[in-house]
Structure formats: structure tokens, C-alpha cells
Amino acid sequence: MQILLAIVIVPSFVFVGVSGYESFGNDATTVAKVNGQSVTQQEYDQALRRQLDQYRQRLGAQFDQKLFDTPEFRQSVLDNLIAQRAIVAEASRAHLGAGDAAVQRALAESLQDIPGMFKADGKLDEEKAANLIASQTGLTPQGYFQSLKRDLTVQQLAAGVQGSAFAPRAVAQMVSNLTEQERDVQELVLPLSGFAAEVKVSDAMVKAFYDKNDKLFQVPEQARIEYVVFDANAIASQVSVTDDEVAAVYNAAPARFTAPEERRASHILVAVDKAAKADAKAAAKAKAEAILAEVRKAPADFARIAKAKSEDPGSAEQGGDLGVIEKGSLVPTVEASIFKLKQGEVSDVVESEFGYHVITVTSLKPAAVKPLDAVKGDIALELKKQKAAKKYSEAAETFTNTVYEQSDSLKPVADKLGLKIETATGVTRTPNPVAGQAPYNNAKFLTALFSDDSLKNKRNTEAVEVAPSTLVAGRILEFKAAAKRPLAEVEAQIRQQVTAQEALAAAKKAGEAKLAAVKASGDAAGFGPVQTISRAKIDGISPLAARSVLKADVSKLPAYVGVELPGMGYGIYRIGKVHQPAQPDAARRSADAEQIDNIVAQQDMMNYVEVLKERAKVKVLQPVGAKPADGAQ
Q1: Distance CA 216, CA 67 (A)
Q2: Would you call 367 exposed, middle or buried from its count of C-beta atoms within 10 A (0-12, 13-18, 19+)?
Q3: Do 43 and 85 touch, CB atoms closer than 8 A?
Q4: Segments of 468-581 assigned E as strands
Q5: CA atoms of 343 and 63, how far apart (whole Å)
Q6: In Å, how far are 165, 179, 454, 548, 591 from 599, measured between CA atoms?
Q7: Interatomic CA distance for residues 615 and 94, integer angstroms
Q8: What does pTM read for this prediction?
Q9: Quick one: 462 exposed, middle or buried, by C-beta within 10 A (0-12, 13-18, 19+)?
Q10: pLDDT tens digits along 47-91
Q11: Is the pLDDT confidence value at 126 over 90?
Q12: Looking at the DSSP assignment, which residues form a beta bridge with residue 357?
């Protein structure tokens, strides 16, 4: 899953984040208006692309864009955009909003499982994050941040509506009873093997199946390509940094390489409310003074005394340890005292809004300039990045011009800029989830690669920016158009499949006759042993058969059900008894109740959004169901 697509999922609505929503297009470019604000054709096209990308990533090789090329799907994209605008407008009226800190946390959480996205010090690698955001969403970091902020705001409003939804307990109990209901069933299967030997598959039957099922035998178009990537990493290998350059940076700004002073402190707190009366404060201070006297007699026992007498629940068990102190992290009076003390010194009693403190500094590392050898690698890396960025800017134009002017080969640009020509096989017009973040697996580049000039004339593509400071150019070496596999190649497979179909039809015919006979007689002869199944526990029989057994009318027992079992044969099932389990599953009943509440919440949210859309005076100016906008797919 590519997690960076800014998506808020509210039941029945999928909102795909776009950068900004204050749009004021003219009527020629406006698809709809919500609260007087425009939903532009460009925004609709972006949402349509992202919806398709989501399904493409989710379904992988099973994705078939033709299934989404429908008026209903295109209309659903517009409906989602309209609903999103209406909800955002309502959130604004209600003064709801996500703070920047909350958005930063959500952003960090969305990236935390991606390798290499955080530096050794735990901070986000902003450059890598920007590249990933751009490649997956097409947004700048600022645009993505605003999109995520809006989505979190929408979640606040949705949570308020959905959090108040509930269903009567009687409904949940009825559903749980149905889920846990048990049925005793016996099985009689007429296997395919008993009928397959009698099936005769003719050449005409094979040809008819082949002609009727074109999609089963299609080989999609694909290409073998070569490509070159021009980015900062390619340039970095071509730049070097000298020791003199590193030393010059080090000597020019020693403050940059100074490790700040580090203080670790402990305290003992005698707690008293700042609103307490004077006599209570005096008693607390006197207690603190007594503790101070005890500490000064035995400074080495500070941790023991803190553990016994400190009233700070957060630090008492750790002997009063407050950890390494950063300026601005503690109340001013306590912090000021800590930064006045020397290592091992004990403060006088210090008053704060929490009470009275006795403080000591347990360790102190003075500020010190890091030696050149300790920071040499970081400085060299920084200088190398600066040089690479400058060289990239200078060479990007050379890359772009060369792949265009010498369009019959990538070798000239590779030789000129020291790049490596890479190859890839099985490349198609749309990104392949298996290829992941490969530079060529980018929608913009693939569009250029499969253009007429590249496809028919075997010319280089233009230089395509697939991520910030990353250009790719490529060419098709070999192209195979979509084709149907020859009949001779798939004949054996078809014979096997037609045989199975004909055998199943024969089994079904025999099975239906047998089913009619046992219904008339009520006989259990030939059936297997009794098995007990429920909707929560299906063991021993096919899930397809179990669904039919559990849906069967059991007003009169025994009841019989016949089921086609593809690949197996035809099954007949005898239901002899219906009952509830002796011990209901409490955990399952709780889960059922929660699920029903969720369904009610979903319906409430749908109804609420419809009200908001009416309030927002939605106007659809251009229908989108007839056909997709140019380039939207």
C-alpha cells in the first residue's frame, strides 16, 4: 500500500486529497459549485486519476481499467468531491480544525514504516519525504500538508456524527442468535470423476470455447526498454571534496560544531497546591527545609531520600531523576536553579507552582567544540550535496537537450554525463505495482514512452521529471502488441476446462434427480455422518455449500439442499436439526453489536452529508458521466 495518498475514509465516501480547495474557475472550466466555490475540471481530473491509482495499487495484476470506465464510476468521483467540499465548509462553520502539531504527527506516522525515511537522530529526512510525496501524489510537501490538514479536520466532524450512532440491543441480539445458530447436516456428493469419463469433447467445442472467451487468452502489450536516470545521486558520484574545503567550513563557523552543555538533574518535591492557604504552604516549606538538611548531611544518599520522601509520582521511583534538562522544558524557577548549580551541589529550597523542591545536578558535561575528525564526514557530505545540486542545475539542460537532439540512442547522453543505461522487460502503459518505485514505473514517463514517436519511430522519450531533481529518458527496444494466444497453444487447457464443465452439468442433472427422490422419501441412506455448522464455524463442508445450507428454509425438517460444487461435483445436503449453542460467545456478541453500530453510523453519516450538500446549494454545471476528461485515465 502506498500510504502517502492523502485519503480520509468515511463510510461510503473516499476523499482523495488535492492541494488546496479555494478554487474559482470560470464556467468553462468549472464542473460544479459548492457554497459558491468551484470544483474545476482540473481538480476532477486529479481526483479521477488518484481514485484509479488507488484501485490499481489495491488490485495489482487483477486491475482492469475498463471496469472503471463507466458513467457511474465517474459520477461517484464527482459526488465524493462535492461531499468533501460540503463537509469542509461545515467544519469551517463549526470552527473545527487540525493543529499543525497534529498534522505533523499524522505525517510522521504515515512515514514511520518506510525504510530510510528517518535519519539516525530520529528526525524526518525532508528531502526523501518530498520526493516520495511528489512521486505518489504529485503534490509539493506544502500542498500535501494542507491536504492532510483538511482531511484530519473532516475526520473530526465525521467522528462527531458517527460517535453518537447506536442500534437497539435487541437488534444486535437477534443478529447474534442468527450468527450462532447451529445446523446438523449430512452430505452426499456426486463427484465429477464419476462423469468425466463419459464426456466427449469435440474440436468444435474447443473452438467455440476459444472464440467465446477471448479475454482468457489475451497476452497484454509489453515492451523491453532501456532508460537513463539523471538525478542528484548520479551527479554526486562525479563530485569530490578536498580536506582543505572541509577544514575551511569547520574553521569558519565553530559554533555549528559545538556540542551544547548537558546537565542531568534530580529533585525532591514536597507538593502543595498554589491556591493553598498560607499555613499549608508554610508546613510544606518546613518539610522541604527538613529534607534539605537531611540531604546536606548525606549528599550521596539523595536518590534514596528522594525515593522515600519525594511527592513527585513521575520521578520518585527513579530517585528523583529528571533526566537531561533542556532549556524551556521545566518551570522557570526550577530550571533557573538547575542551571546555576555545579555538579554535585544541592540547591536551597526552591518554590514553584507545584510546591517546594530540593534540587541537585547529578552530571554536567560542559559545552565543547567537536574535533574536526568527528564532524569531517558530515561536512564532506554537506559540501558534496551542495556541489551536486549546483552541478545538477548546470547539467540538467545538457541532459534534456542531448536526449532530444540525439534521439536515436541513449549512449551519447550516458557518455557525456557518466550515466548508466538500465534495461527493463515486461513494461506496460500503466505503472506495475510489482516494480514499486523503479524510476521507469512512473505514469508520466510511461505516457511518453508509449507515445507514437517513441513507439513507432523507436526514438528517445523527452526528459521526464518523475520526482524533484530526477529526470528520466528512455526508449523502446522491443514491443509486443496485445495478442491472443494461438489455439494450438491453449487447446489442452481448453479441453480440460470444457470436460470439467460438461462433467459438472452431468453431475448436476443426476444430482437434481437424486435430490427430488430424497425429498420425497426423507431417506438418509447414502449420506455421510452428521456435522454441526454455523455462520461462525464452517468445518467439514465446502463454504459454497455451507452458505446454501445456512440460508435454507428449515420450517420443516428434514430439509434438503442441492449445490453445484465447481471442481468437485454436485452436493446434496440433509439438514436434520437446528439449535442454539449451549454457551453463547460473549466476545462475538460484543463484536456483532459493534459492527451493527458501525453500520448505523455509516448510514447516519450518509444522511448527514446529504443534508450538508443541500445546505451548500450544490450546482453541477458539467456532467462527467458521459466520458472521462482528456488525460484523466
Answers
A1: 16
A2: exposed
A3: no
A4: 470-480, 483-484, 531-534, 559-565, 569-579
A5: 66
A6: 9, 17, 51, 25, 12
A7: 14
A8: 0.39
A9: middle
A10: 888 788 777 777 777 777 777 778 888 888 888 888 878 777 777
A11: no
A12: 269, 350
